[in-house]
Amino acid sequence: MARAFAKISFTPNVQAVQTEMGSRTAYRTAELGDTETVALSEFEQAFITERDSFYQATVSQSGWPYVQHRGGPAGFLKILDEQTIGYADFSGNRQYLSVGNLRGDDRVSLLLMDYPGRQRLKIWGRARVVNEGSEPELLAKLELADFRAPIERGIVIHVEAFDWNCPKYITPRYSQREVEALLVQTRQQQPATATPHVQAVLGNGALPLTISGIRQLSPRIRAYELRHSDDEPLPSYRAGAHLRVPIALPDGTITSRAYSLTDAPDERDCYHIAVLRIDEGEGGSSALHDGWQIGARLNVDAPDNYFSLHDDDRPALLIAGGIGITPIKAMTETLAARGTAFQLHYTGRTPQYMAFIKDLQRQFSDRCRFYFSQAQNPTRLDVSGLLANASTDTVFYVCGPTRLIDSVRQTARQLGIADDRVQFESFN
Ligand SMILES: Cc1cc2nc3c(=O)[nH]c(=O)nc-3n(C[C@H](O)[C@H](O)[C@H](O)COP(=O)(O)OP(=O)(O)OC[C@H]3O[C@@H](n4cnc5c(N)ncnc54)[C@H](O)[C@@H]3O)c2cc1C
């Protein structure tokens, strides 16, 4: 299935540069076959309605592109249906550059940024101007309930293509509203009497790391980005690896916990881990959530791996339960990058509690299935069906609750699948 964005944007000049730079083969497949039917899924729709700004490029009569920043209350860019978006155009500096450009060329290109989440969505479309006189009902749909600025017109965009970008060079930035929400969340999670125990440098390993980014992935899961403290390249690792990190408990003792590296090992400048806060137990994960701050330094050992991905071309069937998605995500990205066939089955309580679900859906929608045990209409993983229908050379990987791992291993044995084709990792 050809990706609509590739058909639009991979012009002969772009293709020539891809060829010169060696990326043409990888991108060529995106153009093959009939063009996909473009429809914004619930993920794109949710992303669009959360934005409070975006950039819009139009094409002027002279051929110059013109990029405009548009801002408003979150949700001012409205979803009209799965192929149409629109916004109200308020009176501004009266230059009318974008609206004027649309008279000659209706093509627009939008860039929507989520800086804290390090995600960006590109949209290509054809825009038209909607007036009070001609289409009052449509214009009314673009109005904002609590925003009383005078609307001059509406802009309605028929979406012809969209694409998600790689998050690599997006610096996390936070608006005042986002900082306030994070502060509220942090205050709720910290007992008023407990002072987080922060030390200058934790741990005795030979690898000095600095915490360079923190991101809330779900109500109880935080992602951490770690870089070499002296900006040196980090030791390489293979998908499935984990890092053992030092943690200061509230009583001052130093303990350590293992956390899987969540990204494909193609970047040598940072490691990513994601930590579920567990309030029972010895308190390692909650002390980490409370005590780890950007700029803090850790001395760790190089990553270790008890859950390695196979190197050959055999297909993989990956099963993740809850926070067990962490090594499985790195495996998924690695398999996709090297062109090995895989399927991912990811189960959790509800989408809200499942880390990386949007990223995975966006990147691998055709190869992922999600199951929600506590949704209004629960969906359940059929382990027997999955294993029984897999090809005889499939390698299985499972990470998650003990119950899930046991179920996969037992079912595999019943089906006569050799133990060495079933790889698993337990966090307990
Ligand atoms: C190789 C490896 C990789 C790991 N990767 C990750 C990771 O990517 N992200 C992550 O959040 N944790 C991961 N863990 C688990 C992590 O090391 C800690 O065990 C976890 O953070 C709990 O620590 P704690 O001190 O809060 O609780 P502990 O006192 O260590 O544990 C409390 C109780 O919770 C159980 N437990 C541990 N992990 C879980 C879990 N995920 N769900 C339910 N119960 C659990 C323990 O067995 C124990 O019974 C990994 C563990 C291993 C061995």
Describe this structure in words.
- With 428 residues, this protein is α/β, with parallel strands linked by helices.
- The chain folds into 3 domains: 38-164, Pnp Oxidase, Chain A; 176-300, Beta Barrel (Elongation Factor Tu (Ef-tu), domain 3), CATH 2.40.30; 316-425, Rossmann fold, CATH 3.40.50.80.
- It is 25% helix and 31% strand.
- The strands form 4 sheets. Strands 2-1-5-6-7-4-3 form a 7-stranded antiparallel sheet. A 5-stranded mixed sheet has the order 8-14-9-10-13. Strands 17-16-15-18-19 form a 5-stranded parallel sheet, with helices on both faces.
- α11 crosses α12 (402-414).
Q: What can be said about this structure in brief?
A:
By secondary structure, the chain is an alpha/beta fold.
Shape: globular
Contiguous low-pLDDT stretches (5 residues minimum) are 193-198
By secondary-structure content and strand pairing, the structural class works out as: alpha/beta
Biggest sheet character: 7 strands, antiparallel
- Output the strand order for the largest sheet: 2-1-5-6-7-4-3
Strand content: 25-35%
- Overall radius of gyration: 24 Å
Q: In angstroms, what separates the terminal alpha carbons? A: 42 Å
Q: How is the CATH topology of the largest domain named?
A: Pnp Oxidase, Chain A
Topology:
Layout: H1 4-9, H2 12-21, H3 24-28, H4 42-50, E1 53-59, E2 65-71, E3 78-81, E4 84-90, H5 97-104, E5 107-114, E6 119-130, H6 136-142, E7 151-164, H7 176-189, E8 201-202, E9 207-218, E10 221-228, E11 242-248, E12 254-260, E13 271-276, H8 284-291, E14 297-300, E15 316-321, H9 325-338, E16 342-348, H10 357-364, E17 368-372, H11 383-389, E18 395-399, H12 402-414, E19 422-425
Parallel strand pairs: 8-14, 15-16, 15-18, 16-17, 18-19
Antiparallel strand pairs: 1-2, 1-5, 3-4, 4-7, 5-6, 6-7, 9-10, 9-14, 10-13, 11-12
Helix pairs in contact: 11-12
